[in-house]
Design brief:
By secondary structure, the protein is α/β, with parallel strands linked by helices. Helices cover about 25% and strands about 25% of the residues. The longest helix has 18 residues.
Length: about 300
C-alpha cells in the first residue's frame, strides 16, 4: 500500500483542532456530500511531540490484574500491539468525513481532532505541507441529503461532527472553491427549503467554520446557524448560547427560527458527533414520531459514526 496523495493546506482552528486539505494523485476524486474516505500514514512516521507514548500500554509477558480470562485477553492484545509497532511500514488507517463541497476538485478537506493517545491523528498532525499520505480509492457512505428528498433539514453536530454538514451546505447553498456559487446554490439560497445547523463545542474557539457559517446565514435567509458552547465559564468572550445541543433543540429555538414544527412531515434530522448526544437526540426524536434508518429502510433521523 503506497502513498497516493499530498497535504496541500492546513489551518489550525485551535490547539488540537485542524482543517487539512489533501490532494489525491488521481483527479477528479468523486464523492457525494456527506460521504467519508480513509486516510492513512505509515507507523514509521513521526508523531507530534505532545502525543502520548506510542506502543502498547502493557508489555507482553508483564503481570496484570484481573481474571485468568481477562489476563489472556490483555496478553493477546499486547502481543498484537507489539508486533504492529515493530513494523514501520504498517499503514495506519481510519475513515473521516469529507468537509469540502463535492464538486470542489483539486483537494479534499477534512476537519480533524488530535487524539493524543491515538495512532493516526498524532502522525497526521505532524505532517507538513507537501508531505505524502494515503487516501482510500473511493469515498463511501450513505449519510447524504438524498435521504431527505425535498424536506427541510436539521443537522446536529458536536465537535468535528460538523464536517459532513460543511460539505452538504457548501453544495446546497455556499460559495465553491472557485469563489462562486454553483447553479444549485443560486437556486436554493433564499428559497423555501430550510437548512439548520446546530453545532456544539466546548469553547467558542472550537467552533470551526464559524465565520463561514455566520456569513452564509446572513446571505441566505433559509439557512440558520445555531452554535453553542458547553464551557462558557472558561470562555469569557462568548456571549452566545450555552449548554448541550440535545437540550437546545428542546427549547423551541429551531421552530422560532424556521416557523416550522420539528416533525417528521417537515424535517429530516441528521446526527454526527458525540455518541452520547446521538443517543439522546435519537430518543428525543423518536418521541416526536421520527424513525431511524433500518437497513435499506430509510427513516427520518439519520446518524453517521465516521467523524
Amino acid at each position: 500500500m503506497k502513498y497516493n496523495a499530498t497535504l496541500v493546506g492546513r489551518v489550525e482552528v485551535a490547539p488540537g483542532l485542524d482543517i487539512m486539505r489533501v490532494a489525491p494523485d488521481a483527479q477528479p476524486f468523486e464523492f457525494k456530500s456527506g460521504q467519508y474516505v480513509v486516510l492513512g500514514v505509515k507507523a514509521g512516521e513521526t508523531r507530534v511531540a505532545e502525543a502520548d507514548a506510542d506502543g502498547p500500554s502493557v508489555v507482553p509477558g508483564e503481570s496484570t490484574d484481573g481474571t485468568p480470562e481477562s489476563r489472556v485477553a490483555v496478553e493477546a492484545q499486547a502481543q498484537a500491539a507489539a508486533v504492529a509497532s515493530a513494523d514501520p511500514d504498517r499503514m495506519i488507517r481510519r475513515a473521516f468525513c469529507i468537509a469540502s463541497e463535492s464538486k470542489a476538485g483539486e483537494y479534499l478537506e477534512f476537519y480533524l481532532t488530535l487524539i493524543l493517545s491515538g495512532e493516526l491523528t498524532p502522525r497526521l498532525f505532524n505532517l507538513q505541507i507537501g508531505d505524502r499520505l494515503y487516501v482510500g480509492p473511493k469515498a463511501e457512505g450513505i449519510f447524504t441529503l438524498e435521504k431527505a428528498s425535498t424536506k427541510h433539514v436539521l443537522m446536529i453536530a458536536t465537535g468535528t461532527g460538523l464536517a459532513p454538514y460543511m460539505s452538504m451546505i457548501r453544495g446546497e447553498l455556499g460559495v465553491g472553491a472557485n469563489g462562486r456559487q454553483g447553479l444549485r446554490a443560486v437556486w436554493q439560497c433564499n428559497g423555501t427549503r430550510q437548512f439548520v445547523i446546530v453545532h456544539g463545542a466546548r469553547h467558542s474557539w472550537d467552533l470551526g467554520y464559524r465565520t463561514e457559517l455566520i456569513g452564509l446565514s446572513r446571505h441566505c435567509s433559509n439557512f440558520h446557524y445555531l452554535p453553542l458552547v458547553t464551557r462558557s465559564c472558561e470562555d469569557e468572550t462568548w456571549r452566545g448560547r450555552t449548554g448541550y445541543v440535545q437540550d437546545l433543540i428542546n427549547t423551541g429555538v429551531v421552530e422560532r427560527e424556521t416557523g416550522l414544527e420539528i416533525a417528521p412531515e417537515n424535517f429530516d434530522i441528521f446526527l454526527c458527533g458525540n455518541p452520547g448526544m446521538v443517543d439522546s437526540v435519537f430518543g428525543w426524536a423518536e418521541a416526536r414520531g421520527f424513525t431511524r434508518d433500518k437497513g435499506r429502510e430509510v427513516g427520518t433521523v439519520h446518524a453517521e459514526k465516521f467523524w
